[in-house]
Amino acid sequence: MSVSAPAALAMPSVGACENCGAALAGRFCHECGQAAEPPSSTVAGVLRALAADLTSVDSRVARSVIRLLVRPGELTAEYLAGRRVRYAQPLQLYLGAATAFFFVNAYRPFVTFDPATRRVVSSLNAAGVSGDMGASVLDQLTARGISLPVFQERFEAAVAGYLPVFLVGSVLLFGLVVAGFHRRARRGYLAHAVFALHWSAFYLLLMIADRLLPDQKPGRGPWGAVLAAIALAYLAIALRRVHAESWLRTVPKAIGLFLVYQMLLTVWMISAIAVAFTLLL
Q1: Domain spans in the chain, listed from the N-terminal domain onward
Q2: With bands split at pLDDT 50, 70 and 90, how would you rate the model's confidence at 247?
Q3: What is the pLDDT averaged over residues 191-208?
Q4: Is the pLDDT confidence value at 3 over 90?
Q5: Fewest CB within a 10 Å sphere: which of 1, 28, 61, 279?
């Protein structure tokens, strides 16, 4: 049966993606993901598209943060199962938490120097170090004409500058430790790195809450113990949800990983103090 010319003209033709040239078979290109429809030529259309994009991003981030906080390990499990479109990427989520951590650290530093007592104090929940400035160091500052308030400002700035190195290094190292604790799982490092990103994002948010509470000494007293218990319980639930092991196997691993993470924090604080003093003296 022949097709008339008007009917043939009415049949939809297969278009090509304007970005990569691949044949289109739907609303989005299967090669690069660009929308098949061209951008709107009106201001109203551009604003509608922008609002839709922002709403989509905001909803993914909000959904991810809620899951991160109330469903330990679920984001990692969803990512490893291939269900990734509905959530923010692990690195994106971690960088967001790290950025918020930076802002809070600028407001209330996690490593401080008190000019009145000449004492360095640092605390991140269960991990904490402290020490006094020796007389020899004070003599060096005096000889160079540097007052203690000026040293405090420079010291805390130097520690803050070292913070990004720690944030990156801690995730990489913790991912390796998680992989070592789960050698039998036979998963690649990426799976353990995703878990480390999600866990670290949660822990940073927990430390932000610790630091923002009024009239509290972060990491000290009953509140510090409560935070440590929350973090340990979260880690255990997350491990069990991702690796599906028994509680008998999960709890010791969670305790071991929590202690290792606290050791990483302690090493960072000691090294940050050492680097700051080396740069300033």
Answers
A1: 89-280
A2: very high
A3: 92
A4: no
A5: 1
